[in-house]
Backbone:
């Protein structure tokens, strides 16, 4: 197994992990503010993809632009749709259950996730009558990959990594340098005290949902660009992985989410890639990637139950 | 040892007749199931007054603060601040101008001291989210103002050197002071301090008293819960004694000190009670 | 196909599946009520993935079976009987398929079922059908063990007397592809990727066995989950294996991204798949890089068959909302075979319809004896429930579309 192959696996893992991390931030932020595992977040991610595709397919002229010029518009569309869906879900589905037993919003989230899948699968239409019951094609970068001494970096990979870096920098700035960001952090660390500082927790919850959704939309765009398709059910697996990443990094911790994503992506690609490489272990390769990912999760949680960057917190009564 | 200091200017004692009290609590009652933690307590606080709230452990002092600040909606009673009836919503109470510290420290542990104080200023700043994302002039002005005020408060409490330290890494006494700085950031008219001297050494306690006088000079009224009797007698214009949720008596420190019931229920049993570090943290509200 | 990792979600997804299945049922009932006016209603089930990645194929199956039913009603094929198609969506999920099978069994009006598409789904449905002697004719599941038992390579035994299929098996499809790759394309080193499902694994197995027999080398054998779109680790292994072609066992929602990513990684080698890959969506997803990819489909190309002319004309005249796709012809014939069996069973009883179980056994017997000229050619079942046909067609993507079939022939073995 050559170094180039290994480096290629690392490259793949970083890119995949960056995408997981972008989605994981949404899980972690919502969990941090209201201790809810928003299982519908995977579908918010999916809706982000369809929002971007809608701009591309339905707004005349966008499809004829060069892709790099169309991307900002698609991104805007994806973000708008994902944020609207997330904020709407919070308002209509979760807020009425704020004081209900914890299981109620959790079940609601699962139901919502299936409902959103069905809505897209039943009612999404492409120009010309195509629907979204099957995976639909997503525009992708043409052109050759960049060859860095044998390690291929796809254009979409580059986009993914840059987008993730920009998002994380933006998020760090938002959390530390804006009034809303600090208020959100404060709410996460001590909600009652935050209320005493004049922070309206409802608003912070909305902000957490919205920011998480925006990053998920970015992730959806990178997914579409990388694989050339999006589908109504793509939020399921991606959501599960991102949730794993969030737990891995320490749920509630934003930097932990990104770190967890990258660790998970690397673990998946390296374990499956190395195993796939050798004849005797080939059958434990890609098909077992998820298994290795979860083995890693279990190991980390055995050693550090609070996750990689998580704080050991006393249970809040 | 210092003798009784001359109280700096301010209302001398009692509710100055004629001056409208800024806080009026009437019949405040808080029941937890069968337990009545606070039972029909009235309290008036005049502008610029320092009121001491004392009583044995479990008397309901912290619970009374929780009612005043909206953390617990009182079972009965009303709270009027600056002539306005307060809704039991913590963030409205903060806007109205009441802020507090906690018996068991409740800083935002993973934020810096400066950030803690800036969060304290939340309800006095406005920033459109869009202006922030675009980093517009409004955002920058608001951000600069909040930062300046926070720095000023840190130096007021002599915490400048800790500005960028993570809150939970601060020495205990400084964490208590940071809570005060954070509480003052919302420009309150009334500051509620819940055992601010707990865990402080005598020197720090003395400095704290001077700080509270300086706070009063800024025009704030203060209600302070404390077990350190020397501290409280030398600080307060007026004392209110709670026992088992009820107001036992109130009056000037020298009056209260002479009251037999107070001696029996409180001072007699626990003279010069040690600062309540190990006290029932659990009973403090969450 | 889409393997659900969380049992809970899987179960709730099942409920949703039922909901959509109900939707399509009312739709077909509506179509049926428009035609014919017999006294007795005999229902024919149709189970296929009507939503999800394989929808294009599933809808083709549904509408083709619908066409057979509509024509039978119009022509009064069985006097006094109105046929009604009851379509259910299995979402390519074995557990949903099993629930659908139970629902068909529970409805005494159902005389036979067409479908499903996926071999894994067929596998889970058969024990349910077999217990009730309810005839199931699959027009698309090609795994050999469904008819010839798990040890079909060494000892063939009929697995389920109630199961039939009118499509050639992978026992022919895989070897046919191996033969083509080795002899016609002259490629002697191949990497295989399967999706871990009954169909995909079976296809790769039969391909690999024949390819090795011919003297070729399987440079790499990989399994990837069916719901993956990320093949980066597989691809780096393919790259270092030096294979000149990737043989894929699975279906296009996962097969197309593989092709796209192979070429993006600079590997300009074709992907070849079975009938699961042969769909226009494959090309849309994989993009221009998919030019030169191959896929085999059991049977001769429908458009080129004289026997299918009528079917194609009728299908187009009916203006169904989706094309008949690759299993249209076999689905039409499967429905037709059940209609004929019902007719034969009724004739035995002098036109009266015997009660429930007895009727189903009679239909089962009649199905075994059925023999007619269908759209895809002569239809008659052997002792395992298979049709005799061994014809396969190799399709290739040229200029962004599947061609008319580069080569069509029977595989002799
Ligand atoms: N949230 C609560 N639920 C039930 N009982 C409480 C709660 N908070 C305080 N109490 C009870 O109310 C009484 C007064 O407590 P507290 O106000 O903390 O006393 P103090 O601050 O005067 O020491 C205690 O008996 C305490 O156990
Ligand atoms: Mg207390």
Residues:
């Amino acid at each position: 197994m050559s170094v180039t192959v290994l480096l290629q696996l690392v490259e793949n893992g970083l890119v995949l992990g960056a995408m997981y991390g972008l989605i994981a931030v949404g899980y972690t932020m919502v969990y941090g503010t209201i201790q809810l595992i928003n299982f519908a977040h995977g579908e918010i991610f999916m809706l982000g993809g369809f929002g971007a595709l809608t701009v591309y397919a339905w707004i005349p002229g966008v499809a004829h632009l060069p892709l790099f010029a169309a991307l900002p518009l698609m991104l805007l569309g994806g973000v708008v749709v994902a944020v609207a869906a997330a904020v709407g879900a919070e308002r209509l589905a979760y807020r009425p259950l704020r004081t209900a037993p914890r299981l109620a919003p959790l079940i609601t989230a699962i139901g919502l996730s299936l409902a959103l899948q069905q809505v897209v699968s039943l009612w999404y239409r492409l120009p010309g009558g195509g629907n979204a019951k099957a995976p639909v094609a997503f525009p992708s970068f043409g052109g050759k990959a960049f060859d860095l001494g044998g390690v291929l970096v796809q254009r979409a990979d580059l986009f993914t990594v840059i987008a993730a870096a920009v998002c994380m920098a933006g998020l760090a700035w938002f959390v530390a340098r804006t009034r809303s960001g600090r208020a959100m952090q404060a709410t996460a660390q001590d909600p009652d005290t935050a209320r005493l500082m004049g922070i309206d927790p409802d608003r912070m919850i909305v902000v957490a949902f919205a920011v998480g959704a925006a990053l998920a939309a970015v992730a959806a765009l990178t997914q579409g660009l990388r694989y050339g398709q999006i589908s109504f059910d793509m939020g399921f697996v991606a959501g599960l992985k991102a949730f794993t990443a969030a737990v891995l990094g320490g749920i509630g911790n934003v930097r932990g989410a990104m770190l967890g994503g990258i660790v998970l992506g690397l673990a998946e690609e390296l374990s499956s890639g190395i195993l796939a490489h050798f004849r005797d272990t080939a059958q434990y390769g890609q098909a077992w990637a998820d298994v290795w990912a979860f083995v890693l999760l279990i190991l980390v949680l055995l050693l550090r139950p609070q996750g990689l960057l998580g704080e050991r917190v006393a249970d809040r009564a | 040892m210092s003798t009784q200091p001359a109280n700096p200017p301010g209302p001398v004692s009692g509710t100055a007749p004629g001056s409208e009290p800024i806080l009026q609590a009437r019949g405040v009652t808080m029941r937890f199931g069968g337990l009545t933690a606070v039972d029909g307590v009235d309290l008036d606080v005049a502008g610029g007054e320092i009121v001491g709230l004392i009583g044995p452990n479990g008397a309901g002092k912290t619970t009374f603060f929780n009612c005043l600040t909206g953390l617990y909606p009182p079972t009965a009673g009303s709270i009027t601040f600056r002539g306005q009836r307060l809704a039991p919503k913590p963030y409205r109470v903060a806007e109205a101008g009441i802020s507090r510290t906690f018996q068991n420290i409740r800083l935002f542990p993973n934020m810096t001291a400066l950030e803690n104080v800036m969060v304290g200023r939340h309800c006095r700043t406005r920033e459109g989210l869009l202006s922030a994302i675009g980093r517009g002039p409004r955002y920058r002005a608001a951000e600069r103002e909040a930062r300046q005020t926070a720095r000023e408060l840190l130096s007021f409490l002599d915490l400048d050197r800790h500005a960028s330290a993570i809150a939970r890494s601060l020495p205990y006494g400084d964490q208590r002071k940071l809570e005060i700085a954070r509480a003052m950031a919302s420009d309150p008219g009334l500051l509620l301090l819940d055992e601010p001297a707990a865990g402080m050494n005598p020197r720090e306690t003395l400095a704290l008293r001077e700080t509270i006088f300086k706070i009063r000079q800024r025009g704030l009224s203060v209600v302070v819960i404390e077990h350190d009797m020397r501290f409280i007698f030398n600080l307060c214009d007026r004392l209110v004694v709670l026992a088992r949720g009820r107001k036992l008596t109130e009056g000037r420190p020298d009056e209260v000190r002479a009251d037999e019931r107070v001696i029996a229920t409180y001072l007699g049993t626990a003279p010069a009670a040690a600062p309540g570090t190990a006290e029932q943290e659990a009973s403090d509200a969450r | 196909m889409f393997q659900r990792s969380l049992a809970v979600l899987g179960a709730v997804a099942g409920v949703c599946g039922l909901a959509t299945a109900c939707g399509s049922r009312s739709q077909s009932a509506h179509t049926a009520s428009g035609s014919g006016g017999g006294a007795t209603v005999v229902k024919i089930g149709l189970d296929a993935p009507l939503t999800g990645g394989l929808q294009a194929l599933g809808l083709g199956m549904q509408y083709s079976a619908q066409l057979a039913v509509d024509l039978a009603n119009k022509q009064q094929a069985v006097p006094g009987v109105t046929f009604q198609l009851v379509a259910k969506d299995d979402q390519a999920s074995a557990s949903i398929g099993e629930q659908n099978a139970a629902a068909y069994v529970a409805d005494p009006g159902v005389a036979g079922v067409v479908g499903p598409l996926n071999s894994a789904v067929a596998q889970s449905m058969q024990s349910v059908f077999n217990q009730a002697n309810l005839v199931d004719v699959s027009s698309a599941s090609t795994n050999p063990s469904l008819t010839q038992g798990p040890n079909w390579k060494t000892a063939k035994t009929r697995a389920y007397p109630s199961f039939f299929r009118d499509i050639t098996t992978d026992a022919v499809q895989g070897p046919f592809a191996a033969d083509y790759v080795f002899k016609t394309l002259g490629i002697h080193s191949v990497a295989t990727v399967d999706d871990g499902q009954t169909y995909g694994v079976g296809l790769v197995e039969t391909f690999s066995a024949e390819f090795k027999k011919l003297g070729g080398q399987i440079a790499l054998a990989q399994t990837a989950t069916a719901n993956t779109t990320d093949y980066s680790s597989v691809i780096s292994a393919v790259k270092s294996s030096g294979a000149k072609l990737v043989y894929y066992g699975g279906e296009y929602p996962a097969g197309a991204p593989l092709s796209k990513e192979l070429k993006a990684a600079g590997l300009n080698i074709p992907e070849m798949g079975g009938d699961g890959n042969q769909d226009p969506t494959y090309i849309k997803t994989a993009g221009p890089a998919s030019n030169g990819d191959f896929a085999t489909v059991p049977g001769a190309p429908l458009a080129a068959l004289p026997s299918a002319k009528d079917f194609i004309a009728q299908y187009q005249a009916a203006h169904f909302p989706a094309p008949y796709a690759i299993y249209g012809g076999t689905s039409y014939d499967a429905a037709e075979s059940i209609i004929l069996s019902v007719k034969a069973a009724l004739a035995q009883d002098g036109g009266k319809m015997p009660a429930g179980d007895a009727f189903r056994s009679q239909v089962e017997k009649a199905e075994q004896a059925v023999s007619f000229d269908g759209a895809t050619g002569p239809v008659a079942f052997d002792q395992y429930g298979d049709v005799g046909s061994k014809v396969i067609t190799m399709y290739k993507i040229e200029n962004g579309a599947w061609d008319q079939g580069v080569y069509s022939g029977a595989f002799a073995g």
